[in-house]
Structures are given as C-alpha cells and as structure tokens.
Design goal:
alpha+beta; binds adenosine-5'-diphosphate; binds magnesium ion
Length: 596
C-alpha cells in the first residue's frame, strides 16, 4: 500500500501558522513596532495606507540587521532574542518565538531594507508569499525599514473578511497607542494616508499620556504607586467623572508590554465602588512589573492575555491601591450619606400645597397624578408629605373619593439616589428610575411626534468646539455628512477640532460636548452606522445623545417632570434601544422583603 502522509511544504505551513499571528493589519503593526522597540530604536515611524490593508511601513533607527540576518529573520523560529535552550524562559516571559516575520511574509508582500551602524551599505530583500523575489545591497539609513503590502493577497477568503478602512484603522491606532504608552522614551509617529495622526516626542510617561489623550484627561489623572513583594504597580487612573460609556482607554501593561486582563479590570472597576454608574468604564493606565517567571504569556497566540502566578493576591493589591489613590485625590467623596444625600433629598413636593391643585377628577390630559383622599385622613399632620401616585390609568384606583392632577402641575416626591437614579412612588409601589434612559425614552417619543427637521436646523448662538482624539477623529468626515442628514451640522477644523454649529429644531441639549461624543460613538459603531440605521434608529441615537447623562444631578423639579413625562409615554418601560427605564418594587414584593 502506498504511503499516504505528505509533509506540508513550508510555504503552506507558514500560511497556516500565520493565521495565529496575523489576523488583520493591526496584528502586523503590533509585531513590527514591537520588533523596533526590541531593536533599541529611539524613533519609530509608522505609515499606514487604507487602514493598513494597502500598506504598512515601519521605519526605525534601531540596531539593524546584517545581510545574513536579514535573510534569516523570515525563517520560522528565527530569533536573535533566544540564544540557547537555557533561554527558554525568554520564550515564556516575552513570547519571543521568532514566528512573526515568517507569518507576515507568508501572507503579504514584504520589502525589508536594513543597515547596521557599522556597515556602510545596507541590504534589501523583497518577498511575496514567503519567496524572495529580489535582494541586494542598497543605500539606506541606519536601522530597519519594513514595508508590508497587500495583506492576504494570496488568501482571498481572509482578505474579503477585512473590515472597512476606518474599522481597521481603529485597530491600528489601538496597537500604536499601546506601544507608545509602554515606551514614552521613544519618539513615535503615526501617519494615515500621509496625514499625521500622532507625532510624539520622547518624554516621560505623564506627558506622553497627556500628549496622546489631550488636556481633557490631564486634570483628572490620579497617580498610582504601590510596591509589594509580588508586584510594582505604577501609572494613573482617572477621576470617576471622566469615565466613559464604552471602553477604549483602559490600559494594563506588564513588564513593558500591553496586556488584556478582564480579571484585573474588574479589580479596577470595583475600586471605584459606587462612584461609577454600572455601564461606565473608568480610564486607566497601569503598569505592572513582576518577576518574569511569575507570568505566562503563551496562553494566547497574540500574547495579549497573560496568566499570573498569584492572580488573587494581585487582585487585592490592585483594588486596595486604587481605593487609596481615589480616596486621597478626591475621586471618592468621603462617606457622604449624612451630608450630601440628605441635603438634596426633598421629602415632599417642592411645589405649593397640594390643595391648590384641586381639579375635577375627570380632568383631561395624558398623565395624571392621583391622590386618594383617604390618605390625607390617615396621616397625622393632614397636609404634610402626602403620598402621591403618578398613574396613567386613574380608573384603576379602587374606591373612595380622589383628586386628580395634571402631571405637569404637580411633582411627586422624588428621592435622588445619585449615580443617575432616583426613586419615586407609584400606586403599586416604589419606582426606581434610570434618568438617562427615561429621558431618552421621553425625547424619543417627542421626536417621533415632531420629527427633527434638518431643513429647519437652528444655528447655535455660540458654536461649540470639541477636541477629538486621533482615534475619535477617524472617519469624522463621514460622520459630518451623516449627521448633517439629520440636522446636526458640524465642521471639522484641522488638526483635531469638531465644531458644532446647528441642531435640528426640537432637539435640546444640556451638555453639548457630551452630546457630540455620544453621537460619535453611536454613529461610529460598525453595526449601527447611519447607513444601516433607519429613521427610528436616527431618532434613538439623537435621543440617547441628548438625554441627561448619569453624572448630571437633577433637581426635584426636573426629576418630577421626567417621571411624569415618562409615565405619559406610549412605552414608558423601555428606552429606545429596549433597555429598562425603571424598576418597580410592587407592594407584594415589598411585603415579601419584610416577610409579611
Ligand atoms: P521575535 O521578535 O520573536 O524574535 P520576529 O519574527 O518578530 O521574532 O523577528 C525575528 C528576528 O528578526 C528578531 O529576533 C530580530 O533579530 C530580527 N528583527 C526583526 N525586526 C527587527 C528590527 N526592526 N530591527 C532589527 N532586527 C529585527
Ligand atoms: Mg517579534
């Protein structure tokens, strides 16, 4: 019988292995700029075309390679970073496996020009699909210059799965940011289609963070420093007020490399305690230094997920170090129950005495507030703090004479709970309202009745400027066109300012900057970009962006009005995206809690 086993040719083996290392242009960026860092570069320039799909070029002034090394570096398991088997530790700790360049060369067209400081001439190699197509001596600057073109040109199925330019570019920027934060002493530049996105000089960590993320972060940075036997943690966290709705500015590094660590992330979030509404993510830049032997980077092929020896102990260290930092630098108002909460806790409606609002029980109007008259009698002081029930269905109330009021005219007692929630009462129990979602629901239905009209956009008296980070600025041109179509008129002014000039009639905004950032997020999401949204989606995005944020403190009148407007809605229980706007603790549930 004939033998049936074939050994795969190297080129195919490399392509298969490449699948592990190279998922998208950003993976190539990561490997190339990390190599430049390892080569001792003091300056790294990254030039990208079309989100990296067309071309990625990394130029460094590091040690460079000899002609022999230049050829060898594309071989599988070729690495200068592990000398002998005794260095296996280096594989484990830093993930040097000599695989990256072999993998990249297997699925792209690569050109390498490199020169060591002690050589007069450099060497150049051009390859496609793992094969050298030309090589020879070349005049080039000291250091290394890699150009990677047409990623996945020979794996059409994978090429097709690459996303649009702005999505791929966001990933590229994320990789660039990680290396730039970990190596503030290296000058780094990022250009996309010849436009400079970052031009970072060599600086210390603090200034790098501020140069990268802008002034808006500067006042909010809180330093962290803790040293224990297991770990040193340094870096910065941000005051809770800078937390954002979606992730993107959370950075952990270990021994100088970026890592993802969902478990430690929870330690960070937990340290903010109740300072953060549940769907807000704090911004942080935390650098861990540990003994190399105490981590394992090889659990993940792209090396961003790392296993630590003492994860539970480290969790505690992170958590308590951050609590301390937050407490010390005023992030956490010290236990404030007695002062702050009680101060703005109105125990009765701040409006005029209830009797002034007396109206016939059959008064028209969508929302009413029903006060069973019997309640007054059962209470000692008669008129003090009456129980007030907003209700859409007055007829549901059983028995007894009652007074009905228009919601607009009477505010039920509301109790601010902080963090964007407040409590109010209802005929059936206690209602806890999420102010942001509730407001989004109210605005959404208002806009449905009265659609914002792009033609009659209202010019803002004072245009509002918002500084965008390079990441936010990606795709801003499309955003401007799309936003215009719903009446939000913006102009982009170089290098990074978005200026809001007009809003559709009928849309009112409390915090313009938050509004713009929220819209950018809403429209920037791949699956919800304006192109794929219908008119309802537009309204929902507008409603979300202009709704009260969770960090906004509402006064009693605003809470009362919001509750009344919410319960007058067609669908009060859900926000436009379908999330609950309030929770009701029914009397039955309350009785159960008290084991009645
Ligand atoms: P690894 O980084 O795990 O060693 P790579 O495939 O990324 O594997 O790189 C292989 C080798 O090529 C490196 O060990 C290094 O010797 C050399 N090399 C890669 N990039 C550079 C660079 N920018 N400057 C100098 N040498 C480099
Ligand atoms: Mg490498």
């Amino acid at each position: 019988m004939a033998d049936i086993i074939n050994v795969l040719p190297d080129s195919i083996a490399n392509q298969i292995a490449a699948g592990e290392v190279v998922q998208r242009p950003a993976s190539v960026v990561k490997e190339l700029i990390e190599n430049s860092v390892d080569a001792g570069a003091t300056r790294i320039v990254l030039k990208v075309r079309d989100g990296g799909k067309e071309q990625i070029q990394v130029i460094d002034d590091g040690i460079g390679m000899s002609p022999m090394d230049a050829r060898l570096c594309f071989e599988r398991h070729a690495t200068s970073k592990i000398l002998a088997a005794s260095d296996l530790e280096a594989i484990v700790t830093m993930g040097f496996r000599g695989e990256a360049l072999a993998s990249i060369a297997a699925v792209a067209e690569v050109a390498l020009a490199t020169r060591r400081e002690d050589s007069e001439m450099g060497y150049q190699i051009v390859m496609a699909g793992s094969k050298i197509t030309s090589e020879g001596v070349v005049a080039t600057a000291k250091g290394t210059n890699f150009t990677v073109r047409n990623l996945f040109f020979n794996v059409p199925a994978r090429r097709r799965f690459l996303k649009g330019t702005s999505v791929e570019m966001k990933h590229v920027v994320a990789e660039f940011q990680r290396v730039a934060l970990a190596n503030p002493g290296i000058a780094m530049q990022l250009l996309h289609n010849d436009e400079v996105l970052y031009d970072l000089r060599a600086q210390n960590r603090y200034h790098r963070i501020v140069q990268m993320f802008g002034k808006r972060i500067e006042e909010a940075l809180i330093p962290v420093h803790v040293e224990t036997e297991e770990v040193t943690i340094e870096g910065y966290i941000c005051k809770p007020s800078k937390a954002r709705k979606r992730g993107g500015e959370q950075f952990f590094f270990v021994n100088g490399r970026y890592m993802r660590h969902p478990y430690f992330h929870r330690a960070v979030v937990d340290s903010y305690d109740k300072q953060l509404p549940h769907d807000m993510v704090p911004i942080y830049f935390l650098f861990f230094t540990v003994r190399p032997e105490s981590i394992d980077v090889n659990i993940h092929p792209t090396k961003t997920e790392i296993k630590f020896e003492n994860e539970r102990i480290l969790w505690q260290i992170v958590n308590s170090a951050l609590r301390e930092a937050l407490g010390q630098f005023g992030g956490l108002p010290q236990l404030n129950f007695h002062e702050d909460v009680l101060r703005d806790m109105p125990l009765c409606p701040p409006s005029a005495p209830v009797a002034d609002f007396e109206m016939p029980a059959s008064a028209p109007g969508p929302a009413r507030i029903i006060i069973p008259a019997a309640r007054f009698d059962s209470r000692s002081g008669g008129g003090d703090a009456p129980m007030v029930y907003p209700s859409r269905e007055p007829s549901e109330e059983g028995g007894g004479p009652r007074l009905a009021f228009r919601a607009e005219e009477l505010l039920p007692p509301t109790l601010p709970l902080g963090h964007g929630y407040f409590a109010t009462t209802h005929a059936n129990g206690l209602v806890i309202v999420d102010q942001q979602r509730a407001h989004a629901r109210v605005l959404y239905e208002q806009m449905e009745r009265n659609p914002p009209n792009p033609i009659t956009s209202l010019q803002l008296l004072f245009p509002v400027s918002v500084e965008l980070s390079p990441e936010e600025a990606i795709g801003v041109e499309t955003f401007i066109i799309e936003a215009e179509s719903i009446g939000v008129r913006c102009v982009y002014s170089e290098p990074s300012t978005l200026v809001l000039h007009a809003l559709p009639a009928g849309v009112s905004v409390v915090d313009y900057e938050a509004f713009i950032r929220e819209l950018l997020v809403e429209f920037g999401e791949e699956e919800t970009s304006l192109k794929t949204r219908d008119a309802r989606g537009h309204l929902a995005a507008l409603a979300h962006a202009s709704a009260y944020s969770r960090s906004l403190t509402l006064n009693a009148e605003e809470m009362g009005r919001l509750a009344a407007n919410l319960f007058a809605c067609r669908e009060p229980s859900r926000d436009p995206d379908g999330y609950p706007t309030f929770q009701l603790w029914g009397i039955g549930q309350i009785q159960k809690m008290f084991q009645v």
